[in-house]
Design goal:
homodimer, two-stranded antiparallel sheet, 168 residues, 6 strands, alpha+beta
Chain lengths: 168, 168
């Protein structure tokens, strides 16, 4: 382990499989663990099995970047809990996008042991869909980047804040 | 440059800013360029400004992983075009998720120079939303992983194939 990239290619997690292809993603894996309820250095270390110095460096950076808040652990003066900030929590769409891509493209059906489910009903999530403002579903060639200053004034606004309000 | 991480923190692209925080994402940046129409080694090299040996290694790996297909360039016997496969194209949801997160959390409004728009109407995209199978919008705490074998039989199926059909 100790700083060397571990082989995530056979991990049970769709995200991990996608990361094996896409790059060095310790930070997102730490964030994934936080979504699963992990908060303490020792918990991250145990579940991810990465070297203490690497975990320490990544957590420090993630705190600096405003993804985690370090909160002093109750009853200790030295240990922290690492709690996702709102900014960190909003990475859930990235995690789900990776999970769904990995699940769809990096597993044989018989290999799938875990599903991402709706917490209330324990049913698999719907696939993420990209939509235009008028609700049309867009495919992989349905979008492009554009210079904001060249768009009609009314289109230069970011997607409406209301669209970011979610129920849970 | 030459193998050293470049500073993407002030790039104009929401994805690049997210990557600065999240990790080493050359591969996704190469894929982003492919969505923008780049196909040739020299085009990727010019637009990303990364060292030839790094680009070469990444492209080789991405071909091996089935993200790109290497197609011999017309009129030459040595050069390839790198064309996204269907598997590669399906990473668009990941790219958009990163873009939207980066745009929302890593820019001041006045810094935003580019938008991701619907190619037909040139209007900004709707924000990606995570939904349950029954259509409820789920927030960052609205999902969890579950062991497939412990789910009701009807829920153990992956999201319906029809949901993956998109119009463009």
């Amino acid at each position: 382990m100790k700083g060397k990239r571990i082989d995530l290619g056979h991990a049970e997690c769709g995200i991990a499989r996608a990361l094996q292809i896409i790059g060095d993603w310790w930070s997102l894996l730490i964030i994934r663990e936080a979504f699963g309820g992990k908060e303490r250095f020792s918990e991250f270390q145990k579940s991810l099995g990465l070297a203490r110095n690497i975990l320490s460096t990544r957590l420090k950076k993630l705190v600096e970047e405003g993804i985690f808040e370090a909160v002093q652990d109750e009853g200790t003066s030295t240990r922290n809990r690492y709690v996702l900030t709102s900014k960190g929590e909003q990475l859930y769409i990235v995690l789900i996008a990776l999970w769904q891509w990995g699940e769809h493209h990096c597993f044989e059906p018989s290999e799938l042991k875990y599903s991402m489910v709706d917490r209330d009903k324990m049913l698999p999530l719907a696939a993420l869909e990209l939509r235009a403002q008028d609700g049309r579903i867009l495919g992989p060639r349905g979008f492009r980047t554009a210079v904001r200053a060249e768009l009609p004034t009314s289109s230069a606004k970011p997607p409406a804040a209301a669209k970011r309000t979610r129920t849970t």
